[in-house]
Design a protein that fits this description.
5-stranded mixed sheet; alpha+beta
Length: about 140
């Protein structure tokens, strides 16, 4: 059983925030705008959007941007994440491998990761489902 229960109102706030962030994305190369919203341990929601760069590896994913906003605001634990992408081809967006590891830094294995597009909510996963047998802060000595 998950240690955190996402309420309908929290899910709706995450969805609204992520969709607004998606509209601000800078995606001139892929034409695939992404928005993300992270709910922190204090109940605050932090937004991020993807920001592409002509030197492709130098871009920033929406999830990483949202985590950065969370940390800047003093948050240290992600309770839920919602990611919005286009509903192209019937597939749902999930965080890339690098963002899954970034989420692991601030989220437990049962972190809620919800997918959505412009029209509807998609599947919900836990971080453990997306990143099984992960390496995280608990593997290292406390700082």
């Amino acid at each position: 059983m998950p240690s955190f229960i996402l309420t309908d109102s929290q899910q709706q706030a995450l969805l609204t925030t992520a969709r607004l962030a998606q509209r601000k994305a800078y995606a001139p190369y892929s034409n695939y705008p992404v928005g993300a919203a992270v709910l922190d341990e204090q109940g605050r929601i932090h937004a991020g959007c993807n920001v592409e760069n002509a030197a492709y590896p130098e871009g920033l994913c929406a999830e990483a941007a949202a985590l950065s906003a969370m940390v800047l605001a003093g948050g240290r634990q992600a309770r839920a994440v919602l990611v919005v992408g286009r509903g192209d081809g019937g597939s749902w967006i999930t965080p890339c491998g690098g963002c899954r590891q970034k989420l692991r830094e601030f989220g437990a294995p049962d972190l809620i990761v919800q997918s959505a597009n412009e029209l509807e909510l998609g599947p919900r996963h836990t971080l453990a489902q997306l990143l099984p047998e992960s390496f995280g802060p608990g593997h290292l000595k406390a700082r």
